[in-house]
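Tutorial, part two.
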Amino acid sequence: MSNRRVDPLLLNAWLSARSIARGLPLPVPEYGGLRVDTNSDVEVARWVFWEMGPGLEELARSIKKPRYFLKLCGAADELQAALPVGWVLHSPSYFMQASGEPIRRHLTEGYRIEAEHVGMVSEARVYSKAGALAASGYAVETREVFIYDRIVTDPQHRRKGLGHAIMTSLHAAKQHPSNPELLVATEDGRALYSTLGWEPISPYSTASIVTQ
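Running the prediction step on this input gives:
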């Protein structure tokens, strides 16, 4: 993996676009990273850091409750070394960037795709012949970046190219060719996106306190 240092401006642009995609407050600088107040049932807030620093360690020591997430553009063992007892690492993810134009393929027979655009947010959905939602995803373009978010395929409809169809549909909304295309992928997603010409910029490690 390239694992080069992540540009803080690029990370801020991605995180800001992600907040727009999800209807969340924009990130604010704090502890040498970026805080987003998510206020969901599983997460109160998250801090995203482009590199390790004393602010992350200070923040980790100050948090005593679950539902607060620390995220680092760096290796999991690097994040683990900065955490007090009681914190656990989540499954690995990867900060990725597209390296070229998407390959266009025909939608698998028996499915149909719908897309809509509301403000800065694009959404695409693939339905089966029976009308079931088989895959979906979102994208947002700002002046700095074009990001993909929540690209999901139902387990019963995987291995049919539906996730690729979602991303191709969303890509059609891109207006500024020079904008970098970004996403965060799971381990499985990383393998898929790599076949589509995406490259990992760095690991994207996450930790939180275990629920007592």
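Residues 8-96+203-209 form one domain. In part three we will examine how such features are distributed along the chain.
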